[in-house]
Design goal:
Elements (H helix, E strand, L loop, with lengths): L2 E12 L38 H13 L3 E2 L2 E2 L2 E4 L9 E4 L6 E2 L2 E6 L9 E14 L3 E4 L4 E4 L6 E7 L6 H17 L12 E11 L9 E6 L2 H20 L7 E6 L4 E7 L9 E2 L6 E2 L2 H10 L4 H12 L3 H7 L3 H13 L3 H16 L4 H5 L4 H12 L5 H14 L3 H7 L8 H14 L1 H8 L6 H11 L6 H12 L2
Parallel strand pairs: 13-14
Antiparallel strand pairs: 1-11, 1-12, 2-6, 3-17, 4-5, 4-16, 6-8, 7-8, 8-11, 9-10, 12-13, 14-15
Helix pairs in contact: 1-4, 2-3, 5-6, 7-8, 7-10, 8-11, 10-11, 13-15, 13-16, 15-16
The structure holds adenosine-5'-diphosphate and magnesium ion.
Length: about 475
């Protein structure tokens, strides 16, 4: 029997706002536990919520980016549950009248590299709604600690249709979501900081069957690749169960990134009944056409559009644009540098090879701050003008990265300016040809690599300052009669 996988993702994203969703309490990541609270966040008696307009604005923006229908009037509901992370015993959310319906997320599939763009498709969305985050529980062996700093932070939930079919597609979907939300300034989407969290619903069905299989919800997927691996494991597990004559039970399973397995957490019998009802403390929100027009007029260029533009404008291949464009910081840095020297290919190569190699796991913001765009452009110009060799370029780059010194200064300091006096170089090449008859004869007899012996001698004679490509060209010219 052949099976196909059906996956729907529920993604929570913290909205980047100064204050919390229903109070003026500040929020910042990484502060000491329980220092960012106020009576409303802690649900002390007599407190009432007020709506954070900026969070509504950002949610509508997200809806517009993904082509959702924006509700003219949207309301708030109480999602009731009793758990220590939730001070009010209910979470204010949106149940039956969310801010955004429908829409889709464009994804780019890997391994489909073409000249301009990879292979693209749209994953359908069900909805995007706005709610408040809850506190963060940390469990230890015999106690649990709670931090209410996170409680009340604006949170959007982006729910996809069951329109994803593999771990790789889920991976592409999350990358696209993240990239678009970061570009639009809606969130930083750092999964390590819990700013983006994903639950995956996974089912399989025999190919040709119309109705969906029983789904399993995966939790604890803490990274984008964790989501991919968790889904891939779960698809295989479900196939094994069905092929062994068993049935899938609807349950929630936890992904364990260490063992690379999912294990049961709870079954449907213990699932929550949230008893949703409209929150009587909050008025519905009305989204005006003026607000939508305003948001639309301020939307920045989106990543896939930029990727295509980089191809046409700078003649950069997909292998480079697909690294630069998903990261707003990198692509902005690139365009800044190109303003100082029109050598896009050399600049892009420095960024995608050398800069990213040095970056490791450092945040891109601090990585790009190491070398100013102007300094990078200056270095690229020296390489493009063959004033220094590519190899020296790499060495200078590394030193610039460590010291912040300018390219010109380092090239002078180390005497790296290469010999580009063609006549002088020709003279040296002639000398080397006379002194190395054996290699010359081999080359003329058709052994092409014999030229390396000659090139090596010229480089040696110039103390490494001759440009290898130039030497190569001159020797071939001299030997072609
Ligand atoms: P709940 O409210 O219990 O989370 P929803 O109907 O809102 O359930 O669905 C949650 C997610 O599960 C959505 O992303 C949806 O696309 C997905 N989903 C629903 N049914 C299936 C299924 N049979 N297989 C895979 N995903 C599914
Ligand atoms: Mg769910």
């Amino acid at each position: 029997m052949k099976y196909e996988a059906i996956i729907g993702l529920e993604v929570h994203v913290q909205v980047k706002t100064k204050s919390k969703m229903f109070s003026s309490c500040m929020y910042r990541y990484g502060e000491s536990p329980n220092t960012l609270t106020d009576p409303t966040v802690l649900a002390l008696p007599g407190t009432l919520p007020t709506i954070n307009a900026e969070a509504v604005h950002q949610t509508v923006k997200a809806g517009m980016i993904f082509g959702c229908e924006i509700a003219a009037i949207s309301k708030w509901d109480r999602k009731n549950y009793f758990y220590p992370d939730c001070p009010k015993n209910y979470q204010i959310s949106q149940n039956d009248n969310p801010l955004c319906h429908g829409g889709s997320v464009e994804i780019e599939l890997e391994g489909a590299a073409r000249n301009v763009m990879g292979e693209h498709r749209n994953v359908k969305l069900n909805r995007i709604h706005l709610e408040e985050d809850v506190g963060k529980l940390t469990h230890f062996e015999d106690e649990s600690l709670i931090d209410y700093n996170r409680a009340g932070v604006p949170l959007i939930e982006i729910v996809s249709e069951p329109d994803i079919h593999s771990g790789a597609e889920a991976f592409a979907y999350l990358n696209s979501l993240r990239t678009h939300l970061v570009y639009a300034g809606i969130s930083d989407c750092d999964m390590e900081k819990g700013q983006m969290r994903c639950d995956a619903n996974v089912s399989i069905r025999p190919v040709g069957q119309r109705e969906l299989g029983t789904r399993v919800e995966l939790k604890n997927l803490n990274s984008i690749s964790g989501v991919k691996h968790g889904i891939e494991y779960e698809i295989l597990r479900q196939q094994n169960v069905l092929e062994g004559g068993g049935a899938i039970s609807q349950e929630t399973r936890r992904w364990n990134a260490e063992t690379c397995m999912t294990t049961p957490m709870r079954t449907k019998e213990t699932a929550h009944d949230y008893r949703y009802f409209t929150d009587p403390d909050l008025m519905p929100v009305k989204i005006s056409d003026e607000m939508k027009v305003d948001i639309l007029s301020k939307l920045p260029e989106m990543p896939f559009v930029k990727q295509e533009r980089f191809y046409w404008m700078y003649n950069l291949p997909y292998t480079i644009t697909s690294v630069l464009c998903p990261e707003k910081i990198l692509s902005d840095y690139f365009e800044e540098a190109v303003k100082f020297h029109r050598g896009p290919r050399t600049i892009a190569n420095f960024i995608t090879n050398d800069l990213l190699r040095m970056a490791g796991s450092m945040p891109l913001e601090s990585v790009c701050a190491k070398i100013s765009p102007q300094n990078l452009a200056e270095l690229a110009k020296l390489v493009d003008d063959v004033a220094i060799s590519k190899q020296s370029g790499k060495e200078v780059f590394n030193e610039m990265y460590e010291t912040g010194e300018s390219a010109e200064a380092l090239v002078e300091k180390h005497g790296l300016r290469q010999n580009t006096d063609i006549d002088e170089l020709k003279g040296i090449c002639r000398g080397v040809i006379c002194d190395n008859q054996k290699a010359v004869n081999e080359f003329l007899a058709g052994k092409d690599q014999a030229i390396n012996v000659l090139k090596g001698q010229v480089i040696k004679a110039t103390h490494g300052k001759a440009n290898p490509q130039l030497v190569n060209r001159i020797i071939r010219e001299l030997l072609s009669f």
